[in-house]
Design a protein that fits this description.
The chain folds into two domains: 3-56 and 261-410, no CATH class; 90-228, no CATH class. Helices cover 53% and strands 20% of the residues. It contains 16 helices and ten strands. Strands 2-3-8-5-7-6 form a six-stranded mixed barrel, surrounded by four helices. The longest helix has 42 residues, at 20-61.
Length: 414
């Protein structure tokens, strides 16, 4: 590109005297581009923040990896535990028992997922011990038949710490009147709060030996749970462990167990990117209209440049420079403001809430009461690159129209 093409293109972006309206439209196009880029960066960061927060809560309450058996009964589980624990990516492993049941207290009945754990080992597998709001996970002692409930489960039953609930399981005994379910009274020794409905509403924890007695498993367990050093390597670790297991055992990692949820989140994120990209597209149409008006306004200038020897390609480059400058400045303004807002969302949102007396995420409605943000710079690069590409494409047609200007026609009435 010749220096004069760049100079004239930059000169046209700073309108003087008679073309203030074109300058105003250029400013609107620039601000529209900035608004679109900023909105994309902030919304993607917020969605990343929600995904990261929910994933952290999900992994805090459940193991990163589990090995389960066909039929839900694993006999001779100690060699399996050793194989899982010896994997270099596994930081801790422990057996567990899982089953379904019903809890009753007074007139209240609630279906639950019962999980039998070893309290001493569970602290190395999950963060449930840190989520206890009342009581202690250590009170789940063998033979004492204690139970730890989710906060919403305890609230729906109307039970408090120290009170006794009846746990009913489908494993029962045959009597003259038919199958009789097993009933056992448990004392509530703890209440936890994860912040996610599937756990707080439906999960009940008991000692693993009590669970073996309750579900008539003897020395068998349901499976082996494990915690990984790097949760992102869970699929690879799961496949590596699966190759060491017999055909009747299966290794499942957290990505497989929650695959539907994460696919839904990713789809929603992609749709939000497409929808918000329309703001950038509208700004690009503004660039087109700005350049079309600029070409019409500069007909005589184009004709003079052509008579002085400027080629159609040079004329095209001049107006491409003008459109690209609008797009680049708008993109940079949007990227800077979007990054600044995403990084300071924890300050900006409370200020807006205090200013207008509102609360966007009420604690009594939403499990996440603060607007999280997780800025990822590779996504910023994608957004800015997309914005620049759109602004560049928007300059092609008006610039081509300018390059086709005939000097004699343009100067006929001058």
């Amino acid at each position: 590109m010749q220096p004069y093409e760049l100079f004239i293109g930059l000169r046209y972006t700073r309108a003087k005297r008679r073309n203030h309206f074109i300058s105003f439209i250029s400013l609107i196009s620039m601000l529209g581009m900035a608004l679109g880029v900023m909105a994309l960066i902030v919304v993607l960061s917020v969605m990343n923040g929600f995904q990261k927060e929910i994933r952290a809560r999900m992994l805090g309450a459940s193991p990163h990896l589990e090995v389960v058996a066909d039929g839900g009964r694993m006999n001779g589980w100690q060699p399996v535990l050793d194989k899982v624990a010896h994997n270099p990516q596994v930081s801790a492993a422990a057996p567990y028992v899982a089953g379904q049941g019903m809890l009753t207290f007074g007139q209240s009945v609630q279906g639950v997922m019962v999980r039998g754990i070893d309290p001493a080992k569970e602290t190395a597998i999950t963060e449930l011990a840190n989520k206890i709001k009342a009581g202690s996970l250590e009170d789940l002692r063998s033979g004492k038949f204690g139970i730890v409930l989710g906060v919403d489960l305890a609230r729906s039953l109307g039970v408090r710490l120290g009170e006794k609930v009846m746990l009913i399981t489908p494993q029962g005994q045959i009597s003259p009147i038919g199958m009789m379910p097993r009933l056992k009274q448990f004392r509530v020794v703890g209440i936890f709060e994860i912040g996610m409905a599937p756990y707080d509403n439906n999960l009940a924890l008991i000692n693993i030996r009590d669970a073996q007695k309750l579900f008539l498993l003897g020395d068998a367990v349901t499976g082996i749970s494990a915690k990984l050093r790097d949760v992102d390597l869970a699929p690879q670790v799961s496949r590596a462990i699966q190759r060491q297991l017999p055909d009747d055992l299966y290794a499942n990692d957290w990505t497989h167990q929650n695959s539907n949820y994460f696919r839904a989140v990713q789809m929603e994120k992609n749709m939000m990117f497409i929808i918000l990209s329309l703001i950038v597209a509208v700004a690009a149409f503004n660039i087109v209209s700005t350049l079309v008006m600029a070409v019409t306004d500069k007909q005589s200038d184009i004709a003079i440049l052509r008579t002085l020897g400027a080629s159609p390609r040079s004329i095209m480059k001049i107006f491409i420079v003008q459109g690209v400058v609008i797009g680049v400045v708008g993109t940079l303004l949007g990227a800077i403001s979007g990054i600044a807002l995403a990084l300071n969302l924890d300050v900006v949102v409370p200020f807006i809430e205090h200013l207008f007396g509102v609360h966007f995420l009420a604690k009594d409605v939403y499990y996440i009461s603060e607007l999280p943000s997780d800025l990822r710079y590779h996504e910023v690069m994608v957004v800015t690159g997309f914005s620049f590409l759109i602004s560049l494409l928007a300059t092609i047609y008006p610039s081509y129209r300018a390059s086709q200007t005939q000097p004699a026609e343009a100067l006929r009435y001058e």
